[in-house]
Amino acid sequence: MNGTTTIAEFREAVLDPAKRRHYQLAWLSTVDHKRIAILYMLTALVFFIIGGVEALFIRLQLAVPNNHFLQPDTFNQLFTMHGTTMIFLVVMPVLFGLVNYVLPLQIGARDMAFPRLNAFGFWCVPLGGILLHFSVLAGGAPAVGWFSYAPLSETPYSSSPGVDYWAVALFVLGIGSISFAINTIATVIALRGPGMTMRRLPLFTWINFVNAFIIIFALPVLNANLAMILIDRQLQGHFFLPIGGGSPVLWQHIFWAFGHPEVYIMALPAFAIVSEIIPVFSRKPIFGYEFVAASSVAIAVLSLGVWGHHMFTVGMGRPLDVFFAISSMLIAIPTGVKVLNWTATMLGGRIRFDVPMLCCIAFLIQFLVAGLTGISHASVALDWQTKNSYFLVAHFHFVAVGAIVFAVISGLQYWFPKMSGRMLSERLGKWTFWLMVIGFNMTFVIQHFLGLLGMPRRVYTYPDLPNWGWMNMLSTSGVFFMSAAALILVWNLATSFFRGKVAGDNPWDAWTLEWATTSSPPHENFIALPPIRSRRPLWDLANPDRPDPIVGENSAAVTRPDHNKVGILTFILSEAGFFAALILAYLYFYARPQAGPGPKELDVPRTLVFSVCLFASSFTFWRSEVALTKQRRGSMLGWLALTILLGGIFLVGQGTEYWKLFQTGVDLSTNLFSTTFFTLTGFHGLHVLLGLIALLIFLWLAWEGDLASGRGESAFKSVGYYWHFVDVVWVFVLLTVYILPLVR
Amino acid sequence: MTTYQFFTTAWTWNSIVFILSAVASVGYFLAFGQRGRPLYFAAAVVVFLLALISPFNALANGYLFSAHMLQHILLVLIVPALLVLSLPRSFSLHSPFAYFTHPLIGWIAGVGAMWLWHAPTLCNAAATSRTVSAIQTTSLLLMGSLFWWQVLAPREEQRLSPPAGIVYLFTACTACSVLGIILTFAPVSICPVYQNPVDRLGMLGTIRGDWGLTSDRDQQIGGLLMWVPMCAIYVTAILAQLARWHSCPAPQTEKSNA
């Protein structure tokens, strides 16, 4: 897809069977980050239309009081699907798509660090989307809200398989997101071009790099929760059902421990887009790069610890309320710093009011409103009044649409020329922008007042109270403006792709590296990179007489660690999050002893023996690694085989333990102890099994001689990190499950 | 005893603490004189005294887990940080101590100080026995200093590079948060002494009644103190690392990022 496409070429490609097959293969099997990015965005577009139509139906039902256009259950299904679709299948994929396209270009890389993992991450999105929507055919979509609160989401209250499909779909999407994040981190750390030091990273890259860490920590927590609800539903576990001693509040804690960072997972890339576009269209470098960069880190770290403000209405007790209120208010500081930086960048700049900039200005104003209504929810007393009202709906749509969607439109208008070689139409873009501004504010500003008047959210209809009717009608009318905006956007994308103005390499006169290559870029991205000494290499190139001050040392040297190592360590971080959630859930229930089997059923001495085998396997693996480095094939094979044997013995030991428990009538559904025990040790065993498979593959490769002469050494070491990690996890499991009851 | 009476009378006039502070101050000025940064040192002494003689100490000795936690934070995070900062720029450790400046040891010391002293047996012992309490205080100061050495050591080359420092602080923050979360949500008492305190000062009625601090609530506040304000300290340190990174002229700080 080099350069621009004309309709004639396109027609030929579609109509000629040979060419068509070629294109199908080229797109379906692609591992090129640019094509994957476009697949991400197209998939997001498809689901955007689906999620948008769902929203339209929701608003039509709510347009007038006492409406019977939709059945209550249909309404519940629609708002669940709307929320889930928009978050996981629209906002995340479209942002991942933009990052996937732009980030490697901005740092002068040829591709992402792991191209095949990248393709895997993308294909998780259609798979997850299809799974989620298949529930409609399999007995009804989930009708429990995107947060799927227990016990409503448990079998006794939601007996159709909708929630199961929902959980599996989100699990798959979570895996896809994590692989994307691993890839982003490894790419930024290991694949930067000469001169692109970490301190010279463009803000778009830096913020998305930071964001990838939030994904790494937050998504596994969700996946642990999903695993637990699936175990409850499919294997009769007891995690979240009060009847068996389980705790619905635990679901909420774990869900929001993911859910709050998730807000920033969606918002930080939007901040990244805006931080990139505002300077270009103000013709000034960003005001206070360091502050924007550092405040992103502050947001990332704080976001992981403030989930409690989603739960003030649960009744957590005053101490928790107070602490979460304070920590939530703290987030306003780094966010406020950012708004200040963006505004100060515009101050005194020669602002060009093209569509990308218009969207950024709307973003700034609407995000400010979203932030103010958001921070008001940190006040517990106010939160109690507004949490379950339309005030909150208005607040988070100001974030999700008013800030994030506007940033995405801005980013599309800005980077479309790079992707297609043609400009999007400014005229159509302005139509989209103004219709969107009018429609969005029409729909959601009024909802603040509806909420303050007391209209609850998650209701399928409402009584004809004074003013509620016209306010809701106004809100619904806005949807048509937004729909028109969306249609024009799609039309704009389609027509400009064929007939738009040819863009050239750098249509916006921007300064980051993606504009240094052709539009669209060649497969390998760059023929040659310009010298990089500052954060705006293209400015330096265009203005040799007054370049930006050099950032850091004046050298092109960049330290780039092995990307396999970075990738596996990042993966291990995410796995640590997953196991931390499972272990904490175990402890949570362990402290509330139940009738029936307990830790006393476990055979500690036998487990200790098998544990020693597992720990010894770490040592034997290390010997095998040393032998590989020293090129001693026989010794390497021997130690590796011993490692696999020891791992196998451990699994057999686990198996006997399970077998003994089954013999005495203890299985996963017996009581809370057995549910948590089998979940925790089972997931660990699964990881050991996967590690063993990886080791067996390497044994085979080594046997065939494929690891000779240093090839595959870094991959072998990476598997080793994983294997050691599995052992370390067992240390914690052993301490919590087997040793803790002994010392108590 | 009313709240007012308590805060005016419950100061612990512990002569050992005063003598130690005095000896340390004299030692500091003899050793470093003008080269040191006495303001930091003075702040360290003041916080140290506040932690050990103020009414909070009386509360921490058997009454309130949350007061114990506040004392713990002051002794393991604030005082050692100020102490390390007070060292003169030219200061360096000599060989027998230099072994302890490996980042892993610093990390284990910092995180271990939190976890170890909240094992129920140790926590109980420290709240009831003066000897154990003295050992605890000493170990907290030492372990805290080892932890902060990695990011606040007097000379640039003794500190971790800023990106590595961020990883160091973030992982420590996570490890302590996990403990804070466990303490906050534990339905059983982690430190049973505080559940039914021996009412030495006649304060229990005021604490449970006027202050509304039941033993459950008390433990929750303790856990939350470890979780939220403690993390705020680490976040501040992370931001300081970022500031250091962006201000240092030579970006030879890349390698340890992985």
How would you sum up this structure, described in words?
- The complex is a heterodimer of chains A (744) and B (258).
- Chain A is mainly alpha-helical and 744 residues long.
- Chain A is 70% helix and 0% strand.
- Chain A has 22 helices and no strands.
- Chain A has helices spanning 7-15, 17-28, 33-62, 72-106, 115-134, 162-190, 203-235, 248-282, 289-303, 318-330, 332-346, 355-376, 380-386, 390-420, 426-453, 468-499, 537-542, 563-590, 604-629, 633-663, 672-703, 713-743.
- In chain A, helix 7 (203-235) runs parallel beside helix 9, helix 8 crosses helix 14 and helix 15 packs antiparallel against helix 16 (468-499).
- Chain B has one domain.
- Chain B has helices at residues 3-9, 15-32, 38-53, 55-60, 65-86, 95-98, 103-116, 120-128, 130-152, 162-185, 204-210, 215-247.
- The longest helix of chain B is centred in the last third of the chain and has 33 residues, at 215-247.
- The model of chain B is unreliable at 250-258 (pLDDT under 50).
Describe the structure in brief.
Chain A is mainly α and 744 residues long. Chain A is 70% helix and 0% strand. Chain A has 2 domains: 31-542, Cytochrome c oxidase-like, subunit I domain (Cytochrome C Oxidase, Chain A, Up-down Bundle); 563-743, Cytochrome c oxidase, subunit III, four-helix bundle (Four Helix Bundle (Hemerythrin (Met), subunit A)).
Overall pLDDT metric of chain A: 94
Order of helices and strands of chain B: HHHHHHHHHHHH
Rounded mean pLDDT score of chain B: 88
The total count of helices of chain A amounts to 22
User: Using only CA atoms, what is the Rg of chain B?
Assistant: 19 Å
Total strands of chain A: 0
* Coarse shape of chain A: globular
Shape, per Cα inertia axes of chain B: globular
- Roughly how much helix do the residues of chain A carry, as a percent range? 55-70%
Oligomer: heterodimer
